[in-house]
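Sequence in, structure out.
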Amino acid sequence: MEETTNSIKDAIKERFSNPFLGKFLLAWIIWNWKISYMTLFVSEDKLSTNKMEFVSDYLRADNFLDFINIYIIPLFITALLIWVIPFLSNIAFNVSEDYRKKRALKTKEIDDEISNKKQEQLNNIRSQLNSLKQENNRLNLFAKYLTEERVYIPSGTKLVSNENLKLFQDYLKNVNDRERVLRIIDRYNAADAKTNFINQLNINDKDFLFSFLIIHPTSDDTNNYKITDFGIFVSKYKLYRNYKNRFDNLNKIADISL
């Protein structure tokens, strides 16, 4: 007897644990709630017949519409619970997962963009540092020039003195260098806008004149050059050489004492 009871319990348990049967029973009870309510909670005194007949009449489904209402619709609801809803849930999960991946990718793109901007800023800083180093080297060269200029052009000495002439002759010992300087100075003397003439020289001529202290960068802009005091002397010396035979008193006019 006990074995039979246990067998029945196991069979019932198996049936109710079956996903389809369990969901169908749940759907049927919810959809046909009236019969469930009347059977469980309404006393037989208030019914026109006993509960067994009432349930039997309800389940008999005399017409097709009643059959659909009592059995087919709960079956349809069961199908929704077992297949359609999980399918929709799976779609919703895939959409959510796709959104999560896109968001993660967008976050990575933003992080990469920030990283690239930081790298670009770092490169700009390095470039600025290199520019500052180059500018510092130019300023050091300019400072060296100023130091050397004090040696070549002593303070208190007139630019057109014999000492400057001796300096010119000693400093430009190489004849080719001297003649090249004088050729450029000749063009300088003939120019109307002398400052523009210097800045319009090619880089080789600028470096050449700078190496002999004829020109130097302006104090406020090392990209522009102007003639030095020693360069002015050389300019006047060239004028003297060109025109000494044409004027009796050229020394006074050109402020040259030779």
